[in-house]
Amino acid sequence: MKKLINSPESVLAQTVEGFTLAHSDLVEAHTDPVFISRATPTPSGKVALVSGGGSGHEPLHGGFVGDGMLDAAVPGAMFTSPTPDQIEAAIKHADAGAGVLNIVKNYTGDVMNFEMAVELAEADDINVRSVIVNDDVAVEDSTWTAGRRGVAGTVLVEKIAGAAAVRGDDLDAVTTLAQKVVDNVRSMGVALTACTVPHAGEPSFTLAEDEIEIGIGIHGEPGRERIKLRTADEITELLLGPVVEDLGIGNGEKALLFVNGMGGTPASELYIVYRHARKLLEDQGVEVTRSLVGNYVTSLEMQGASITVLRLDEELTTLWDAPVKTAALNW
Amino acid sequence: MKKLINSPESVLAQTVEGFTLAHSDLVEAHTDPVFISRATPTPSGKVALVSGGGSGHEPLHGGFVGDGMLDAAVPGAMFTSPTPDQIEAAIKHADAGAGVLNIVKNYTGDVMNFEMAVELAEADDINVRSVIVNDDVAVEDSTWTAGRRGVAGTVLVEKIAGAAAVRGDDLDAVTTLAQKVVDNVRSMGVALTACTVPHAGEPSFTLAEDEIEIGIGIHGEPGRERIKLRTADEITELLLGPVVEDLGIGNGEKALLFVNGMGGTPASELYIVYRHARKLLEDQGVEVTRSLVGNYVTSLEMQGASITVLRLDEELTTLWDAPVKTAALNW
Amino acid sequence: MTADVQWSLSWIRDVAARVSERKSEFTTLDREIGDADHGENLNRGFTAVVERIDGLEQPPGTIGDVLKLVATTLMSTVGGASGPLYGTAFLRASKAAAVPELDGQAASALISAALEGVSTRGKAVVGEKTMIDAWAPAAAAAAQSAENGEDAAQVFAAAAQAAAQGAEETIELKATKGRASYLGERSVGHKDPGATTTALILESAARTVQ
Amino acid sequence: MTADVQWSLSWIRDVAARVSERKSEFTTLDREIGDADHGENLNRGFTAVVERIDGLEQPPGTIGDVLKLVATTLMSTVGGASGPLYGTAFLRASKAAAVPELDGQAASALISAALEGVSTRGKAVVGEKTMIDAWAPAAAAAAQSAENGEDAAQVFAAAAQAAAQGAEETIELKATKGRASYLGERSVGHKDPGATTTALILESAARTVQ
Ligand SMILES: Nc1ncnc2c1ncn2[C@@H]1O[C@H](COP(=O)(O)OP(=O)(O)O)[C@@H](O)[C@H]1O
Ligand SMILES: Nc1ncnc2c1ncn2[C@@H]1O[C@H](COP(=O)(O)OP(=O)(O)O)[C@@H](O)[C@H]1O
Ligand SMILES: [Mg+2]
Ligand SMILES: [Mg+2]
Ligand SMILES: [Mg+2]
Ligand SMILES: [Mg+2]
């Protein structure tokens, strides 16, 4: 295992320290318990947005803290949900009187820890809601399992709910809107290589020189199916197909197309995937009116990508376009 | 070799196509010869900025085309300088009557191809200048060799010269300013893994599980020295030491600290490097007043990072802060 | 040793020592069907528990006090799925064991309360390839043993054996809860990490009380 | 075959064929001390050259016309260091060979002009581990051969042999120009890719004219 780290134990604290030093105009670090908040308080009366989850997905979530997006982010240990007390502290800090919406990726651990934090925060008389993001169509039989995972679509939920909060929506309205994004977003990913969790020291799984893993999660979990390497266009078809089908998007509709890198894939490859996904969507009569390409929800140094499609209407488009000022998204 | 590509031959064209489709509000693709320009013409009377070089360093250079930075970018084949006719076409397209400044990384091929392009453009009566960026302190004995290479510092030259052009500086002034940045910026990099050029199909070099390469270039060239893996803090010291010494920056001075990812390194690791580099600089009395952390000048999927320090004064700081609207830098 | 407060401290210290010894085994199990952190998670948690025990100014009055300290520490240091699950298990157990010493009935009640905690929090049932598949047979065996009038040591021994067997049997199961469920059929053939650590916890209880 | 226009087309086609055959060898040399693209670069260039030759409506009048087509095509398709270097080499050579047929003197002049082009463009001198280390001995041997009154075939043969030997001798050199110079001492022990392809170009000239 070769990593630019000092020890597996120090990765989280030192990442948070470096990140908040580099972006001190936007964010602030809190320790004991650890969370990241905006550098300035949540504007009074604005619904606050809190998200969090295991580390190793940077820039998620700390990179999305700032005006127009999250008010606080709670990083857990590597690939491990944060604890209830961390989340509770972030909720308390972020609340500016209008309540707090938690944006939670659908993993057993995340859901349980956020649930416990909400119980604690409610005891402090804070009005808290949660939306569960579950955009990953790679997980089948979802009603019989832990359900679909939350993956790259989380960024779109955070951005759009963040803009709604800035616009002045109340907690109910922001929650409804966040849920609307969840209902209209689907993703699926592929891994060309596994990633190595620092304390594990070994890759999460092993792929032969000519194998790829389709339907990968963002925690180095093996995916749905292991297949032989194909061309970028073929892989794009394998990913986009289930996304489009599950979302039921088609002729005459508008979409945001998001090609997300898993951390170790060159930008050039993401654009090659984007190019074909866009063509496929347009062949089906779907107009791609907004785009996002880059490393936003990563799995450490994994090589691979995911494709996310969000069905857009005028409201979502306006909120997507609204100003945002965070370390990772800025316009 | 596992890559999300369709064929080694199609990488460049499909990357440019995907990139310009995804960012059609900012950029436009030109073919035959290939270059990327702003979506809107260079504002009349503004000095135009053109840069270029081999592909495989994305987002460099196409990601820096837009308001406040480059007016055109010329991508060559993978790790191969573009040809004179490509560059000439970009210069012609970008010129808005106030002349063109080329920002060239110091490699034999880049320098020669830009030289030939300038000869061609001058024959078309365009006023053209070039600055050669040579920030890589890893190359020793520079007077006896091809000289120091141009690496990550190029982004800072492009940003600051771009702001000067927007401010209304004439060609002489923009050139002088770009040269001032070149004179005040130094970099050095490390590779934990090599990268694989698609048409070569094999890694550019091989490193054992416990080896790293110090003083790496951005083309998968082997570096200055191969050493055993060390902690992030130790590696940071090995990189920052020569940078600070060569730049001669010290007590009471201000700096921009830029930690650049080589493409395959997680953001967390870049922030760990940033954290220690910042501490080391501050221990020496250098105040870090501006920062940049991320994948900006990459070597495909290489794992590794480079550290760049730019000595700041008030003018450079103001120009750094000036608005920029490109795919990769936006504020 | 009788199943008293002193024993409960030994028990928890022993769990911490065993988890630290075997953490890479658990992480490997979790790498195969999860996200490669279960060993690290529990080790972080139990290391913190031992630190807190070491820092106690005065000895706890009841076994419940010890288990509550374990519960709150795990909740605030483990995270992931196992943090809330084990946290809730120990919290419920602490309520059931608010006594200075356990007889067979009380030992059985402690294990049943832990099972109930895991079920409430995780909503899994037997056969879903989770730690429930160790807790549930353990609670049943403990109840049977207590009903037979056996003492705490015998109750824990019965529970430990059932948990170990239950953990072993997760190998054949297909996961439908937790992270391993994403693998579907491919989860078959691997032992569930959480069931394995549950077996460790009960084995340690049995061994330390002997 | 005499060294006429027809020959010059055969020569260039042969270079293209050899480059295509051996491109991975050149790329490997360049991977060792450069950036792993020299074979790809030249293959892209000479493939384009052959396409343009195939597309010619009427046969070129002079050898210079052929070499000029090679020069401009390489300049606009190769890039990197070798694009301008070989582009300029063939451009200068084309001016020196504005005739329908070469005698020994003219063959030597062609090679000297190419050398001059590479020197002017790249500013390297002998011993810096570049293609100059093949062109320079080739030009000297060609001049000597022409002076001895030998014909074009003999001049190219002498040049080819000297270039091959010069390329071989780059192995011992430390690079001080081009990308390999970044390696300093570590460049010693590897053959320079550009010198190797220069040797190929001259070897092909000699073989096709025989
Ligand atoms: N819903 C659930 N009910 C009971 N146990 C569960 C449930 N989900 C997961 N588990 C247990 O948690 C274990 C994984 O714990 P851990 O790896 O620490 O957390 P995470 O899955 O968040 O990485 C699994 O092996 C399983 O035994
Ligand atoms: N200044 C120079 N003068 C002469 N030849 C040079 C010079 N610099 C580089 N070369 C030649 O160019 C070759 C490399 O070409 P190529 O790999 O195609 O370009 P690049 O180095 O830009 O990747 C080297 O092997 C060397 O022979
Ligand atoms: Mg986990
Ligand atoms: Mg090159
Ligand atoms: Mg786990
Ligand atoms: Mg090369």
From TrEMBL, chains A, B:
Domain of life: Bacteria
UniProt cross-references to InterPro entries, sorted A to Z: DhaK_1, DhaK_dom, Dihydroxyacetone_Kinase
Organism per entry: Populibacterium corticicola
Enzyme Commission identifier(s): 2.7.1.121
Gene Ontology MF terms in the entry: phosphoenolpyruvate-glycerone phosphotransferase activity
UniProt-listed PROSITE patterns: DHAK (PS51481)
Keywords on record: Kinase, Transferase
Protein's UniProt name: Dihydroxyacetone kinase subunit DhaK
Pfam families: Dak1
All residue ranges annotated as the DhaK domain in the record: 7-331
Top EC class of this enzyme: transferase
Keyword Metal-binding set for record: no
Transcription is among the record's keywords: no
From TrEMBL, chains C, D:
Residues annotated as domain DhaL: 6-207
Record-linked PROSITE patterns: DHAL
Gene Ontology terms, MF aspect: phosphoenolpyruvate-glycerone phosphotransferase activity
InterPro entries tied to this protein: DhaK_L_YcgS, DhaL_dom, DhaL_dom_sf, Dihydroxyacetone_Kinase
Entry's EC annotation: 2.7.1.121
Keyword annotations: Kinase, Transferase
Pfam families, per database record: Dak2
Statement: the UniProt record of this protein carries the keyword Transferase: yes
Transmembrane segments: none
Keyword Metal-binding found: no
NCBIfam families: dha_L_ycgS (TIGR02365)
Protein name: Dihydroxyacetone kinase subunit DhaL
Lineage, uppermost ranks: Bacteria, Bacillati, Actinomycetota, Actinomycetes, Micrococcales
